[in-house]
Write a structure and sequence with these properties.
By secondary structure, the protein is of the alpha/beta class. The protein folds into two domains: 210 residues, DHBP synthase; 89 residues, Rossmann fold (3-Layer(aba) Sandwich). Helix content is 28%, strand content 20%. The chain has ten helices and 16 strands. Helix 1 crosses helix 5 and helix 9 runs parallel beside helix 10. The longest helix is centred in the C-terminal third of the chain and has 17 residues. The protein starts with a strand and ends in a 20-residue tail after the last helix.
Amino acid sequence: MITQRTDDPEKAARWLRAGDCVAFPTETVYGLGANALNADAVAKIFEAKDRPADNPLIVHVASVEQVERVAQNLSSAAWALLRAFSPGPLTCVVHKRDDVPNVTTAGLDTVGVRIPSLPVAQSFLTACAVPVAAPSANRSGRPSPTTWEAVRYDLDGRIRGILIGPQSPTGIESTVVDTTVDPPVVLRPGAVSVEEARRVVPELAMADSVEQQKRSPGTRHRHYAPDATVEIASADEATPGVDAAYLGLNRPTRSGSWGHIVLASNIPDYAARLYAALRKFDAEEMDRIVCEPVEPTGLGRALMDRVRRAAGHASGETPNDGAAGAGEAL
């Protein structure tokens, strides 16, 4: 298969409506989309990514009004969160409609739904005119792609096309909230902070079991891992090496040479740079990547979730800061 590229959302949408997989940009990361109501098309996502079949997908629509094309019996909390944070990086897990195929939801009776805010994503979804199931557009386990070039590196020859757009500005996937339970539960921290979501739904809880997390994509599988070994260490503790790279807010203080240093100006900048930096360090054949930890509050909670997973820590092995495990999704 030859993977085609276009910057025309209408053309990319025609590929998708024909039953093919198309990568497209969002404000979080690039997604790999297929018609969410076409089981054969959705199956191509799993094949292209080598994605485990028990890993549900998030469905993307162009507006809040379209949510009920795949969902039913939405709770007041679901409507409140969708209206407060859509379009944007928040996914609500809701009861699915009967015509949403099991392959899309990994056999669950729920489905995650979100409305991306990036203008090119909005144009693409509007042109598709169908709900679009989409995890991140990478090979499973790899760092999520925030550029179309990263998509091409992982999936060239495996998918029909790539919709070329800008680098994803947020760089961290959406926050996933299960709104089918009372109180609603954060299954995966993301670009909408728990603190922000609690201003809308004060009773919001954090997932405290693997069974809860199963409703969110990817919580039982390792993700975001580069080829290099990822270590977590402060700027004062980081051990230099010519085969090592460093990513953080503060310059490392120990004497010695580094293969590469990337310094972020603040936590949002750190989050936006994370996946691209992991891929860059792999391309430079670094053996070790040292990531500086940040306080796990606000966006820092999601950032540290991704860093810990890149370092090989499962969700149950995270420090006791209330952060649930994450998965590859938008």
